[in-house]
Write a structure and sequence with these properties.
This protein is mostly helical and about 210 residues long. The chain is about 80% helix and about 0% strand. It folds into two domains: about 60 residues, Arc Repressor Mutant, subunit A (Orthogonal Bundle); about 150 residues, Tetracycline Repressor, domain 2, CATH 1.10.357.10.
Length: about 210
Amino acid sequence: MKHQASAAASPNLRDRLRVLTSQAILDAAEVVFATQGLQAARMEDVAARAGVAVGTLYNYFKDRESLVASLHAWRHQQMIELFEQSLAAGEAQPFEAQLLGVVRPLLSHFDQHRAFFVVLMQSEAEVGRRETMCVRRAAILELRGCFERVVERGVASGALRREDAEIFPSAIFAMMQCAMMQAHFSESATPVADQAAALVRLFLDGARVRP
């Protein structure tokens, strides 16, 4: 009986170990790609930082492009999950609090993973990364769809103008991107999440229902 329980637990343990190893490689890749550049970075350095053999790395990711695309997919998935949790947590709050409740965590995620933003900027400057571009395009569309849901709540509550609602998701998204880019290019150490309340107020000043 004990042997059966141990045998049943083993696959789960192997699955968890595989997930942890994959995440360790992706965390390492984020730092190595950001510091060395996508073209110059060596897969051996990624493996060394992750604490795995190079052969192990290739067991998880077939090549550099697969690793870059997987990093993009992983970080974007984290943002989507963070968005969903924040949106659900603020459902009963006034609309401004709901909007702030999704904007601030996403900006905090940027603060925690600025190296990923560097990789993101490098990816935009390169051509030929078809797998990565497909992942990024899908992620951007999904994030915009998330903000569409927030705007729908704002319109339904009477907080946002219905006639301009179509452009509001892109407007919020663009304002957040600008704040991130400003922090990146200015190399400011100030958390971008500290600007969340100001960004929300600025957006609402232009998007509220007019008297």
